[in-house]
Amino acid sequence: MSERLDVHKNRVRWIAAVVSSAVALSLAGCTAQELRGWLPSDAETTNNTSRVIGLWSTSWIVLLAVGVLTWGLIIWAAISYRRRQSDTGLPSQLRYNLPIETFFTIVPLILIIGFFAFTARDDSVIEKANPNPDYTIQVFGKRWAWDFNYITDGVYESGIQAQLNDSNNVDITSLPVLYLPVGKTIEFDLESRDVNHSFWIVDFLYKKDMLPGQTNHWYVTPEKEGTFRGKCAELCGEYHSLMLFTVKVVSQSEYDAYIQSLRDAGQVGQLGADLNTNNDGTTEG
Q: What whole-number distance in Å separates Cα of residue 137 and Cα of residue 145?
């Protein structure tokens, strides 16, 4: 009996060593894209993307370790306790093993509490209001496009839904464009003109609901110049897939030039809630 127990212990140690080595080698060979969990952005895109990438990647590493350990134990049990030709009758049964049952209860509970705590910590930072943003931009979602009110600058841009070209692909030039100055804190005031939408700048790794009759807020500081994709992330009707927009994070001079171009085009003022299709034009803060 003791010899068999020693054999089992040696097998467990061997499996643990193999699993640990495999995890270490896998992580050591990871590319930059793999280390950020194949997310479409990098840590320098906004002031929050590094936090999101860290939470996402760490969660997957923990879950991968749990998965590998679980699969290893399943394979080990299937091999170690397989029925042999010399075996007769039923194998010994295991019932009401309090240590094992406690382990199977406590470990998942610790994991759940840990995931919740770290998620709540990061979410509280991302959702924290900034009382002194550099710019305030009001965004209206509408079936199936976007209106952008540059509140601080007193101009607006109104968009239409994405148009298809002759090849039945989206014509990028038809998309409404949202300009943001790099390194400046932006307050987004998010509202809907009709049904539920969701404002999603993909590379910013965050999205926020837009609900009729309610104003949601999101604060972010773009830290990397570039052109990014934006879309609605809430199924909102027939042409939901064409509710797209482009985000350009540019230098302050380029941003100022764009704002001036809107003024020159006569797009001065705001496109207000009076254009909403299903309420009396009022919103709740």
A: 16
Element (H, E) at 187: strand 186-192
Q: Report yes or no: 121 and 58 within 8 Å, Cβ to Cβ.
A: no
Question: CA dist 21 to 25, 57, 260, Å?
Answer: 6, 19, 59
Quick one: tokens of 74? Answer: 């399943």
Token digits for 235?
């199924």
Query: How do residues 169-195 score in pLDDT, each as one tens digit?
Result: 999 999 999 999 999 999 999 999 999
CATH class of segment(s) 135-275: mainly beta
CA 98 to chain centre: 39
pLDDT at 39: 74
Q: What are the structural domain ranges in the chain?
A: 2-82+94-126, 135-275
Kindly report, residue by residue over 23-64, the tens digit of the pLDDT: 555 555 566 666 666 676 788 899 999 999 999 999 998 999
Length of the chain: 285
Task: Assign 153 to helix, strand or coil.
Answer: coil
| CA neighbours closer than 13 Å in the CB half-sphere of residue 250 | 15
- CA 253 → CA 12, 45, 248, 260, 262, distances in Å? 63, 19, 13, 11, 15
DSSP type of residue 91: P
pTM of this prediction? 0.79
Helix (H, G, I), strand (E, B) or coil at 270: coil
Phi-psi region of 19 (alpha: psi -120 to 50; beta: other; left: phi over 0): alpha
Run of H or E including 11? helix 2-28
CA–CA distance, 133 with 268 (Å, rounded to integer)? 21
